Amino acid sequence: MEIMQVTGSLVCSHRVGGLGHMQLRVLRTPKGKLSVAVDPVGASPGNWVFTASGSAARFACGNPEIYTDLTIGGIIDHWSPDGCGLGALPPASPSSSCSPQPWPLPPPPIPAPRT
Question: Whole-angstrom Cα distance, residue 50 to residue 6?
Fold first, then answer.
C-alpha cells in the first residue's frame, strides 16, 4: 500500500469493457510521480488516500473482474508523515522528538507536460 494525493479526475468516454463504469482519479506520490487509480470510495482532489496495487487492487475495488492494478482503498482523515501523531508510538529516546507537520502537507510541484 502507498499514500498518495488525488490531483483530479480522469474522464474517458471510450474504454475497455473490463473497466466498467468505475471512477478514475489521477494520483500523485509525495515525490511527484503521477498514476491513475480506480476510485470506489469517492475521493476528491486534494484528498490524501491509501492505495492497493497489483492483484490486490482488483479485490479492493469490490469486483475482481475489473482491469486495474491500482485502487484507492480509503480517504485518510488523520496522518502524520514522520510516524508521530495519533496512534503512533512515542519517540525511541527522550532526546528525539516528533516535529509537528502541517496538515494537509503542501503538494509537491506537478511536472510540466512533455512536448
Answer: 10
